[in-house]
Design goal:
The chain is α/β, with parallel strands linked by helices. It is built from twelve helices and eight strands. It has helices spanning 3-61, 63-68, 74-91, 104-128, 137-221, 235-320, 327-351, 364-374, 376-381, 401-418, 470-480, 492-495, and strands at residues 360-362, 385-390, 397-399, 424-432, 435-442, 484-490, 504-512, 526-527. The chain has a six-stranded mixed β-sheet with strand order 2-4-5-7-6-8. A two-stranded antiparallel sheet has the order 1-3. The protein is rod-shaped.
Length: 533
């Protein structure tokens, strides 16, 4: 039901109820007053008739009127007067007063009979009187005056009865007026009570949906667009709630579109920032590699020739010495140190190279076997076991075999140096998700936490005789192949009493099987976590 219909119905119910009640009260009051007024008018007429009848009867008591005038017409005038009295009694409104005695026919008949008796007596006296005969006053008083006085007394009682009835009607009219006023007041109070009783639910039915909409508007202003207005109540409120919900749907769609655009924009910005950072890092690495390349060229130029001469002279000196000569040990030290200097120069040259390398399908299990064979003298000398865990049916990987061999040699050499005598090195190869997973794990003492952030920086080393170029070169080789390198390590103190047992370092390398993405950034060393080594 609409709000207009509710208000109209409310006005009609209250207004019509009050109008009907007031109409009934007014009708009853007016009817009662009208009846009383008509009755009072009849009583007034009756009183006037009674008074006129009494005046006419009083003429019968006066003998002068008919008896003392010795006229021939006295009998006729008396008869006419009596006819008039009977006519008044039978036709005058005065007969209405008889109704108040509950026997109007008997009272009227009795008066007429009395008048007829007076008529007969008077006519007899007037007719029997001769000329010169004195008037028979005693007969007149007995036959006419006495009965007429009785009739006058009866009509006087009628007049008193009418007067009492008039007073009664006046009292009834006042009572009717008071009752009408009381009923009007009661009706007004009742209508006011009904109006108040109906106003609350009607007003609640109108304002409650509007209050709900106002509350939902406040919550929507706070950012909650999931709310929906209940489409119930009056038709106007339903239309308003439906429009409100349509507006919320549009706002939700626009908000979702803005959020999607914002997320897309944030992803685009992050991608651009990442690309810029990556290009900045590549530029820095290029500048660093260029500087290293210049240094490497100068070092190679300045050291290769003297080192070659030193090695040749040391070999000649060693060949010329007998086996028992104490100088042979010195010559061998010279050869080892010179060879180490040549290796350092070669590593510097390798770190500074930025030229493109050739990628060919290769078998990494064969390259791993070659690296183990290449370092056999180093791990056999310290009785270190090298265990290879190779997956089944390993596919070929698109890579540069010499660089991957150098990568494995660097990592295995670091593992052998970090492992105690009679220790163990594990090399794992597996293929998952279009990638080759290569792991080199040792059982050494682990890398201290303070050194982990600088692990892949050039010239940083924790070894006494290390150059600090092995891991930097290894990371560069992995980046050239579009892969990632990750380090997990745990020292003896970190492994004490914590699962899983054991300490050491694990390098994990992931290389794509077919795609090359040289934009991969560097991966810093990460500490070991439970269950991962």
């Amino acid at each position: 039901m609409s709000i207009r219909a509710k208000i109209t119905l409310f006005v009609l119910v209250v207004g019509l109820s009050e109008a009907v009640l007031l109409g009934v009260i007014g009708y009853n009051s007016v009817s009662s007053v009208s009846r009383n007024a008509a009755e009072l008018r009849r009583i007034g007429s009756a009183i006037e008739g009674t008074r006129a009848l009494n005046v006419a009867l009083s003429r019968l008591s006066d003998p002068v009127e008919f008896l003392l005038r010795n006229e021939r017409t006295a009998s006729d005038r008396f008869g006419s007067h009596m006819d008039e009295l009977e006519r008044r009694v039978s036709t005058c409104a005065a007969t209405s007063c008889h109704g108040y005695e509950k026997r109007p026919p008997e009272m009227a008949g009795q008066v007429i009979r009395d008048l007829r008796t007076i008529r007969g007596s008077g006519t007899k006296i007037l007719v029997g009187r001769g000329p010169g005969v004195p008037p028979p006053l005693e007969d007149w008083a007995e036959g006419v005056d006495g009965p007429s006085r009785k009739v006058s007394e009866a009509t006087g009682q009628m007049a008193e009865t009418l007067t009492a009835k008039a007073k009664e009607l006046e009292s009834a009219s006042r009572e009717t007026e008071r009752a009408a006023l009381f009923l009007v007041g009661t009706t007004t109070v009742f209508c006011i009570f009904v109006a108040v009783a109906l106003c609350h639910p009607i007003a609640g039915g109108i304002t409650r949906p509007l209050e709900n909409l106002a509350d939902q508007s406040r919550r929507i202003a706070e950012g909650d667009l999931t709310l929906r207005a209940a489409e119930t109540g009056p038709r106007e409120t339903v239309r308003l709630a439906r429009s409100f919900n349509l507006m919320l749907d549009d706002l939700s769609k626009q908000r979702n579109a803005l959020l999607n655009y914002q997320n897309e924009l944030e992803r685009t910005v992050e991608e651009r920032v990442s690309e810029l950072r990556q290009k900045d890092e590549e530029l820095k690495r290029s500048e660093q590699s260029a500087g290293i390349g210049l240094v490497a060229g100068a070092v190679a130029h300045d050291l290769n020739n003297p080192l070659s001469n030193i090695l040749l002279n040391a070999e000649s000196l060693l060949d010329s010495m007998p086996e028992s000569s104490p100088g042979r040990e010195i010559a061998m030290d010279i050869m080892r140190d010179a060879q180490r200097c040549r290796e350092i120069a070669y590593e510097i040259r390798t770190l500074g190279r930025e030229n493109e390398v050739e990628f060919l399908p290769c078998r990494l299990d064969q390259i791993a076997a070659e690296a183990v064979r290449h370092l056999r003298f180093k791990w056999k000398l310290r009785d270190i076991q090298v265990r290879c865990e190779l997956g089944k049916d390993l596919p070929e990987c698109l890579c540069n075999a010499p660089r991957i061999l150098q990568l494995l040699v660097n990592l295995m050499s670091n593992g052998i140096d970090a492992s105690p005598d009679h220790g163990e090195i594990t090399v794992r190869l597996d293929a998952r998700d279009e990638k080759i997973i290569l792991e080199v794990e040792d059982g050494g003492s682990g890398i201290p936490p303070e050194c982990r952030d600088s692990l892949f920086k050039p010239f940083f080393t924790t070894k006494v005789k290390g150059t600090g170029l092995g891991l930097a070169i290894s990371r560069r080789i992995v980046q050239q192949h579009g892969g990632t390198i990750e380090c997990r390590t745990r020292t003896v103190a970190e492994a004490a009493g914590k699962p899983p047992p054991g300490h050491g370092t694990l390098f994990r390398i992931q290389l794509p099987l077919t795609k090359r993405n040289s934009s991969s950034g560097p991966h810093e060393c990460q500490g070991c976590h439970p269950g991962g080594r």
